[in-house]
């Protein structure tokens, strides 16, 4: 349980938001690029190169204007997930972060209490499994057996706080509808697909896929029930589909979120625990 829990929480905790005066948006599955029963327009087919370039530049500027800037972040949330092999009970997670420095995760199960605690830095991962009395010590470059994702520290923090991941200037396949704008972009290792709401340019859905089709890895993130928290747009409900050797589904519900408040990172390794 411990490995799956740490991996899924690190993968799945992503956030964006919506001004509280607006209607709640429920999590919904949407295709890439977006399609609906209303009129939609492929920008490249309907505009000159100059117009398409200007549209893409404006789109990027508006997306970047929604990026959450913070010094510290803390959150409490419920996590419910299932995989091809098991569906553990819902757990509660506490997350604390200092930007560019630390990610701290504590996981508790009903009745049992805290079952795992981890602290991740740009260089290392340390995790304690209280159920099995084991401790995991890893260089961050060699931590994929615990996290099962090839993301660096900055990307993990962006996922947790809700900023777009693998968003680059190489935008293509732009499709507009009255409600949603869909587009793709390319980085060195991944192809990223995005659906953003057309009125305020916050994320509705994103998907990251390996360029190497042989690896067959992808992670799809869906956002809903946006609220204003700490002056930031924030999605309090998330859904994550991870496809690698199998399929894993994660649902998250954020109950409490704070930005730029003092945080601490208590972490001790009992002498009796075995190391892996």
Question: How are the elements arranged and paired?
Answer:
Layout: H1 2-12, E1 41-42, H2 43-46, H3 49-65, E2 72-83, E3 91-98, E4 102-109, E5 113-120, E6 124-129, E7 134-139, H4 144-147, H5 153-161, E8 171-176, E9 180-186, E10 190-197, E11 203-210, E12 218-229, E13 232-243, E14 247-259, E15 274-275
Parallel strand pairs: 7-15
Antiparallel strand pairs: 1-8, 2-3, 2-14, 3-4, 4-5, 5-6, 6-7, 8-9, 9-10, 10-11, 11-12, 12-13, 13-14
Brief digest:
By secondary structure, this protein is of the alpha+beta class. The chain contains five helices and 15 strands.
Average pLDDT works out at 78
End-to-end Cα distance: 15 Å
Beta percentage is 35-45%
Please give the share of residues in helix.
10-25%
Shape: globular
Can you summarize the main beta sheet?
15 strands, mixed
Task: Return the structural class.
Answer: alpha+beta
Number of strands: 15
Please mark out the parts with pLDDT under 50 across 5 or more consecutive residues, or reply none: 1-5, 7-30
Order the strands across the largest sheet as they lie in space.
1-8-9-10-11-12-13-14-2-3-4-5-6-7-15
Compressed to H and E, one letter per element, the order equals HEHHEEEEEEHHEEEEEEEE
Number of discrete helical segments? 5
Cα-atom radius of gyration: 19 Å
């Amino acid at each position: 349980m411990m490995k799956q829990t740490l991996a899924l929480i690190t993968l799945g905790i992503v956030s964006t938001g919506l001004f509280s005066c607006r209607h709640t948006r429920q999590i919904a599955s949407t295709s890439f690029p977006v399609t609906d029963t209303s009129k939609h327009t492929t920008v490249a087919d309907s505009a000159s190169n100059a117009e398409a370039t200007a549209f893409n530049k404006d789109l990027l500027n508006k997306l970047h204007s929604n990026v959450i800037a913070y010094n510290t972040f803390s959150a409490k949330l419920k996590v419910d997930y299932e995989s091809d092999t098991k569906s553990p009970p819902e757990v509660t997670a506490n997350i604390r972060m200092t930007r560019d420095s630390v990610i701290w995760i504590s996981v508790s199960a009903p009745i049992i209490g805290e079952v795992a605690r981890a602290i991740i830095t740009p260089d290392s991962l340390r995790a304690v499994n209280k159920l099995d009395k084991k401790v995991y010590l890893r260089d961050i470059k060699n931590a994929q057996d615990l996290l099962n994702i090839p993301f660096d520290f900055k990307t993990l923090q962006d996922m947790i706080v809700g900023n777009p991941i693998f968003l680059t200037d190489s935008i293509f396949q732009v499709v507009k509808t009255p409600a949603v704008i869909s587009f793709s972009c390319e980085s060195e290792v991944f192809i990223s697909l995005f659906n953003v709401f057309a009125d305020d340019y916050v994320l509705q859905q994103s998907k990251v896929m390996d360029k190497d089709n042989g690896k067959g890895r992808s992670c799809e993130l869906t956002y809903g029930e946006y609220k204003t928290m700490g002056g930031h747009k924030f999605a309090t409900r998330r859904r994550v589909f991870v496809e690698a050797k199998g399929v894993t589904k994660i649902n998250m519900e954020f109950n409490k979120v704070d930005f730029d408040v003092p945080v601490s990172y208590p972490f001790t390794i009992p002498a009796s625990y075995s190391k892996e």
